């Protein structure tokens, strides 16, 4: 299994402020109802395009509901060549509780 690190919302916020990319692997409706500001929805349909156009050296934070599914996705993305991959502990639910002002709605982002 490829290397990734588990990080807290506070560590993720610091990485975000330094330009890290955030991807959200939850279902489309959950993403539309609320997600980390600036995050990108990632699913089986968008995965290939994302990997093809991504900067593999940019820090990448993977978010899910509670921080469980994101670990498998983070390991997969690390295996695809991303050099710095993180799984968000507590997922979007802990993020929203910690940074309610750093969330957005709709799939516009």
UniProtKB/TrEMBL annotation:
<keyword id="KW-0808">Transferase</keyword>
<comment type="function">
    <text>Transferase that catalyzes the transfer of sulfur from thiosulfate to thiophilic acceptors such as cyanide or dithiols. May function in a CysM-independent thiosulfate assimilation pathway by catalyzing the conversion of thiosulfate to sulfite, which can then be used for L-cysteine biosynthesis.</text>
</comment>
<dbReference type="InterPro" id="IPR050229">
    <property type="entry name" value="GlpE_sulfurtransferase"/>
</dbReference>
<dbReference type="GO" id="GO:0103041">
    <property type="term" value="F:thiosulfate-thioredoxin sulfurtransferase activity"/>
</dbReference>
<protein>
    <recommendedName>
        <fullName>Thiosulfate sulfurtransferase GlpE</fullName>
        <ecNumber>2.8.1.1</ecNumber>
    </recommendedName>
</protein>
<dbReference type="GO" id="GO:0005737">
    <property type="term" value="C:cytoplasm"/>
</dbReference>
<dbReference type="InterPro" id="IPR001763">
    <property type="entry name" value="Rhodanese-like_dom"/>
</dbReference>
<feature type="domain" description="Rhodanese">
    <location>
        <begin position="16"/>
        <end position="104"/>
    </location>
</feature>
<feature type="active site" description="Cysteine persulfide intermediate">
    <location>
        <position position="64"/>
    </location>
</feature>
<keyword id="KW-0963">Cytoplasm</keyword>
<comment type="similarity">
    <text>Belongs to the GlpE family.</text>
</comment>
<dbReference type="GO" id="GO:0004792">
    <property type="term" value="F:thiosulfate-cyanide sulfurtransferase activity"/>
</dbReference>
<dbReference type="InterPro" id="IPR036873">
    <property type="entry name" value="Rhodanese-like_dom_sf"/>
</dbReference>
<dbReference type="InterPro" id="IPR023695">
    <property type="entry name" value="Thiosulf_sulfurTrfase"/>
</dbReference>
<dbReference type="Pfam" id="PF00581">
    <property type="entry name" value="Rhodanese"/>
</dbReference>
